[in-house]
């Protein structure tokens, strides 16, 4: 399993804030973006890596990731809420297309893009957490953790546990960066919380306006989005303006 993990590593470049952002997906297949998650046979992945807004933008802009949603998982409390989490953690819940990106590549993004909490426990809300959905994910997660610890000569605070249940976060948390752009939300009809959680277009735009891709990567991915000229120019401006700003909450 460790060899499989190493084989599929993604290239990274340091941003000025020190976060290692994925900046090249040249070997990840680009194709027409599905309109809904039902158009492709997806696989689920669930990660906690500090505040969930940053991870939502990062994974949403990643080719092969179809949808993202933020919420709470990993604990035992029924129906947690942001101000009453109990023992749950903020997580990003991902549906991805295994024909375009694999779990090992998602793990690369996970290990290299924590804002905090990777090597030191902060609190349960912001735990570094991998919730695996099957035995293969468990083995890959453990192998990649061991590899990364050896590579960095550090011990991680990451917890690797079986997935149980995901509770979507409150509406204002879903695609938080995108919701700051009322024009786009209105123009593209992404008004409801359910649409923000399940729309592949919302996932991409949330990452783009946050600066999670370079201009060249944006130009490659935007070919599949079928945006109006006005919307395209709007998003392009924010991709350029926010390039290198780093992902943060």
Give a structural overview.
The protein is α+β, with helices and mostly antiparallel strands and 249 residues long. The chain has a single domain, classed as Peptide methionine sulphoxide reductase MsrA (Peptide Methionine Sulfoxide Reductase, Chain A, 2-Layer Sandwich). 36% of the residues lie in helices and 16% in strands. The protein is built from ten helices and eight strands. It has a six-stranded mixed sheet with strand order 7-6-3-5-4-8. Helix 4 (135-152) links the parallel strand 6 and strand 7 (159-162). Helix 3 (103-112) packs across helix 4. The longest helix has 18 residues, at 135-152. The two termini are 33 Å apart.
Question: How are the SSEs placed, and which strands pair?
Answer:
Elements: H1 2-7, E1 12-14, E2 20-22, E3 43-49, H2 52-60, E4 65-73, E5 89-96, H3 103-112, E6 128-132, H4 135-152, E7 159-162, E8 167-168, H5 176-179, H6 182-187, H7 193-198, H8 200-209, H9 215-221, H10 229-242
Helix pairs in contact: 2-8, 3-4
Structure at a glance:
Belongs to the MsrA Met sulfoxide reductase family. By secondary structure, the chain is α+β, with helices and mostly antiparallel strands.
Shape: globular
* End-to-end C-alpha gap: 33 Å
- Write down the CATH class: Alpha Beta
Q: Helicity, in percent?
A: 25-40%
EC number: 1.8.4.11
Keywords: Oxidoreductase
Protein name: peptide-methionine (S)-S-oxide reductase
InterPro entries: Met_Sox_Rdtase_MsrA_dom, Met_Sox_Rdtase_MsrA_sf
List keywords for this structure.
alpha+beta; single chain; Peptide Methionine Sulfoxide Reductase, Chain A; 6-stranded mixed sheet; disordered N terminus; two-stranded antiparallel sheet; globular
């Amino acid at each position: 399993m460790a060899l499989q993990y190493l084989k599929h590593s993604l290239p990274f470049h340091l941003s000025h804030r020190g976060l290692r952002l994925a900046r090249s997906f040249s070997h990840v297949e680009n194709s027409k973006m599905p309109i809904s998650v039902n158009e492709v046979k997806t696989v689920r992945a669930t990660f906690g890596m500090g505040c969930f807004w940053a991870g939502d933008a990062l994974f949403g802009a990643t080719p092969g990731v179809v949808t993202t949603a933020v919420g709470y998982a990993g604990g035992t409390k029924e129906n947690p809420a942001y101000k009453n989490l109990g023992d749950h953690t903020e997580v990003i819940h991902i549906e991805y297309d295994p024909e375009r990106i694999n779990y090992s590549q998602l793990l690369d993004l996970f290990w290299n893009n924590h804002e905090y909490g990777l090597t030191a426990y902060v609190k349960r809300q912001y735990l570094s957490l991998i919730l695996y959905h099957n035995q293969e994910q468990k083995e890959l997660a453990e192998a990649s953790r061991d590899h990364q610890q050896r590579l960095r000569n550090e011990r991680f605070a990451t917890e690797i546990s079986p997935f149980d249940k995901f509770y979507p976060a409150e509406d204002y948390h879903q695609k938080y960066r995108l919701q700051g752009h009322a024009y786009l939300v209105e123009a593209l009809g992404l008004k409801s919380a359910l649409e923000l959680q399940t729309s592949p277009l919302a996932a991409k735009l949330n990452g783009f306006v946050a600066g999670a891709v370079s201009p060249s990567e944006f130009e490659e991915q935007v070919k599949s989005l079928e945006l109006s000229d006005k919307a395209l120019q709007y998003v392009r401006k924010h991709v350029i303006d926010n390039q290198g700003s780093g992902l943060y909450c």
